[in-house]
Every structure is written in structure tokens, then in C-alpha cells.
Amino acid sequence: MGKIACANVLSDLYAFGVYCIDHVRIIMAVCDQMTEQERAVVIPLMLKGFQDLAKVANLKAIVQNASVNPWCIIGGVATSLCTSQEYILPLNAQIGDVLVLTKPLGVQIASNINRWRINGGEKWENLLKVITEDEVLKAFATAVKNMCHLNKNAAYLMHKHEAHAATDVTGFGILGHAENLVTFQSREVSFHIDTLPIIKNVIQISEVIGNKKRLLSGLAPETSGGLLICMSKDNAERFCKELAEIDDRQAWIIGTVEAGSKTVHISSDVKIIEAS
């Protein structure tokens, strides 16, 4: 949980192409329903996870604020002092650009289903009719691996391959964040999404839980998701190739930037790529 929170906080700056971050501070709340013994175990582990991933980003994370709350919460604030050459304003998507996504979708569905596995019950039994427990565990492991991964190298490559605009994909789903990004473009453009990379087996899971339409419509929320980037097609292909080399992970071209009235359209026959 701490690592996921750290990756999520830093992505706000990575989406601007800011890959050298100066400071990150932790904001957390301790659950008032935890016993003293639970707090003694859980809270240090959450802090360690956040601080360990911050070290990967060459940062020292310190606790800025802590409070007591009905929910156990961890987040933070990241800041960096930059020149105008060190960040990329998310305003300049151009007609003919393509859309690149650096992490697969479906992490929250995979995480929720793992809770079903732990708790058991009728929903879990129905799910086992179409998917095995091992497949659920693999989907959850893939989700955790992606949520804990920093978008730092993708932010660096945004400069090298001349990205025109970007955002990170989190709680509003890919459609919500794409709509937010297209709204602020300086040109009259629209986004067309024809491909959705989704964690392997999450489609089958979404069918059982009745969430498939929401997932394929881009409305399923994500946590610590990838960067959605606008850049030229040639640069996008080089970006994906180099990211795979230095990050050992795949990125995908998922759509195009077209002339339009600042809308986002996901194809009714959207292509699904299963990512593991």
C-alpha cells in the first residue's frame, strides 16, 4: 500500500515530464478502529513501502502530517523546482498524433476480486466457474506490480521523443482522464481510442461481476495507472521500443488524435490486448 501510494503521488509530476523530483512528503491517517498491536505492525510497513519506493526515485520521504481517521490512508505531496525546459505542458496534442498508454488497465477489478477470494462466499464460488484461483492470483500480482511501478522512465522518454501532452490514468478511468486532457488542448482535436490493454483474465472476471461494459467503456477506475501520452506516430514507436528496453515493460499505441471538438470516443469494437 505504501509503495502504491508513493507511485501514485509521484505520477502527478511524471505526467508533466518532470522526472527529477525535489521533495516528497507523506500524509497519512491511522484507522481509529485498529488495535495498538495492529497499528504497531501495519503503519511501519506502510511507511517503509512508501519510503523504499521513494528511494528508487532518489528521494527521501518524510512524514508531513498524521492524524486519526475512520479509514487507514496514506498519500503525499511531491514538488520540484523546474525551468520551462524541464516540464511539458499538457496542451499541445496535434492532429496526426497517436495515444500511448504505459500501463495496462483493470487493476482495481483485479484487486477487488482478490478480496472476494479472501472472504469467500457466493460471489467467489460463481467466479470459480469461469476462472481458477491461480488465474485470479496472477491477475492480482500483475495489478500490484504495475501499481508499484514508477512512471519515471516514461517521463524521461517524453522529452527524448517529443511528447505533446500527457496525463496519468487513475481514479476517473481512462475515459475520464482522456476527456480531461483533450479539454485543455490548444487545438481543436478529439481522441479516438481503438485499443485497450487490460490485465490478463480481468475481462473474464468483469463478465461475472457485471462490470464488463464499464471496463470497455473506459469508466472503470484505476489506481497508480500509466501515462496517457500524445506524440507523433514515429516517435511513439521509438518511445515504446526504448521503454521496453530500459523498463522491461510494454507500452501500447491505443488510439489517434484527430480534428474534432475536444471529445473522446472509444470504438464499439475496441481491440483488447491481454497484458501479463
From TrEMBL:
InterPro entries assigned to the protein according to its UniProt record, in alphabetical order: PurM-like_C_dom, PurM-like_C_sf, PurM-like_N_sf, SPS/SelD
Highest taxon of source: Eukaryota
Cross-referenced SUPFAM superfamilies: PurM C-terminal domain-like, PurM N-terminal domain-like
One example of a Gene Ontology biological process annotation: selenocysteine biosynthetic process
Keywords: ATP-binding, Kinase, Nucleotide-binding, Selenium, Transferase
Pfam families: AIRS_C
Domain PurM-like C-terminal residue range list: 95-263
GO MF, any single term: selenide, water dikinase activity
The keyword Mitochondrion is annotated on this UniProt entry: no
Listed GO CC annotations: cytoplasm
Protein name: PurM-like C-terminal domain-containing protein
Organism per entry: Photinus pyralis (Common eastern firefly)
Taxonomic path: Eukaryota, Metazoa, Ecdysozoa, Arthropoda, Hexapoda
